[in-house]
Amino acid sequence: MSFSLKKPFLSAEEVATVLGVEIQTIYAYVSRGLLHSESGGNKDRSKRYRREDVEQLLLRREERSQPGKTAKTALSLGQPVLESSITLLGEETLFYRGKNVLHLAETSNFEETAALLWEAEEVFPFRQEWPVISQEGIEILNRIVDRPILDRCRILIPFLEYEDPKAFRKDSKTFRKTASNILRYLTLFASGFHSSSGSISETLLSSWSETKKSKEPNDLTSRLRLLEAALILSADHELNVSSFTARCVASSEASLYQVVLAGLAALSGPKHGQLTEKAILLLSQANGNKKKDKQLLEEKLRSGENIPGFGHPLYKKGDPRGRKLIEMVSRFFPNDADVQLYLQFLKQMEELLEDYPTIDAGLALVSKALRLPKGAGIGIFAIGRTAGWLAHAMEQYDSGNLIRPRAKYIGNLPQE
């Protein structure tokens, strides 16, 4: 199958070219329900077609010609393996429930975005007061407060489930209330606070940030906006490894707490969430001398090390999330000497690798610009992505399906 276009919608002419058929055949596909058409918003009343539908047609064609091949590649950036209405990946942006995420990063707050992902904008579960950690929970948190943020969350999530008598309730109102509580509890675990009354970003920033070191105008407003954007852009990215893990667990009808615990386990791997921490560590090694910084990067490449935070297989023109965060940091901190040093270092990486920064590089830059403590970068990613895991869990619960793929056996055959 040769189909690399990443635009979410295609014109009839583009669809006909990709499928190798006449325009009239496209119309026939629509009438048979194989393709969905909608108004393109143009004066000529032309229609547009969903890329996913076209890919499905190609998939069926290839499966008929080469049975089993498409199933083999589906679990590794291959064709879609299930349906979802949460996130649409485009070539230069992405969309949550049809809303441009890059626009949300500038105008929305994290709680509003979470409610959008959960289809809970009208009931808005964050109107309720913050949950308060129980005395027993506080005792546990105090004992592990020096551990990494992911460890704190993974240790305390099962405890929260044990304390919640409604953990397995399946009605939508309870789901969304539980989901908002989980996000806020994770925020408290990450901040070390026992309670809060502000937003999630305000709570994290008041615990993490060293505002006194910055001399930028409108500093607090800029810092909060940047942290909101980082959380929003981290919230979901379709079926990445942690979100797919979360869906698999949800398909067994485990509780939302266990769904989040599973997501955190997947996020902890060096090929997923830990890439953010690796990118932060690399930025910390920049000293501002272009020649020395270039030598540092070249030595890493010569020794076989990977440069974290660059190159995303789904974005040929660069990860829009990483690009957005880097642009916002540049805009908010134009006179910060340290930030300019980091930006220069990132540019050197981009030129050396001939590739684009990902969200991991963007989160690393945000962490350095806000002067956040060690572990805060993956903390942002974890709290942000939890909103997406919870959305996937709710969607999976509603489907009622158990995710149970088959494996093709290639081992030794039984001896007769």
TrEMBL record:
<dbReference type="GO" id="GO:0005829">
    <property type="term" value="C:cytosol"/>
</dbReference>
<dbReference type="Pfam" id="PF00285">
    <property type="entry name" value="Citrate_synt"/>
</dbReference>
<feature type="domain" description="Helix-turn-helix">
    <location>
        <begin position="9"/>
        <end position="61"/>
    </location>
</feature>
<dbReference type="InterPro" id="IPR002020">
    <property type="entry name" value="Citrate_synthase"/>
</dbReference>
<dbReference type="GO" id="GO:0006099">
    <property type="term" value="P:tricarboxylic acid cycle"/>
</dbReference>
<protein>
    <recommendedName>
        <fullName>citrate synthase (unknown stereospecificity)</fullName>
        <ecNumber>2.3.3.16</ecNumber>
    </recommendedName>
</protein>
<dbReference type="Pfam" id="PF12728">
    <property type="entry name" value="HTH_17"/>
</dbReference>
<dbReference type="GO" id="GO:0036440">
    <property type="term" value="F:citrate synthase activity"/>
</dbReference>
<comment type="similarity">
    <text>Belongs to the citrate synthase family.</text>
</comment>
<dbReference type="InterPro" id="IPR036969">
    <property type="entry name" value="Citrate_synthase_sf"/>
</dbReference>
<keyword id="KW-0808">Transferase</keyword>
<dbReference type="InterPro" id="IPR016142">
    <property type="entry name" value="Citrate_synth-like_lrg_a-sub"/>
</dbReference>
<comment type="pathway">
    <text>Carbohydrate metabolism; tricarboxylic acid cycle; isocitrate from oxaloacetate: step 1/2.</text>
</comment>
<dbReference type="InterPro" id="IPR016143">
    <property type="entry name" value="Citrate_synth-like_sm_a-sub"/>
</dbReference>
<dbReference type="GO" id="GO:0005975">
    <property type="term" value="P:carbohydrate metabolic process"/>
</dbReference>
<dbReference type="InterPro" id="IPR041657">
    <property type="entry name" value="HTH_17"/>
</dbReference>
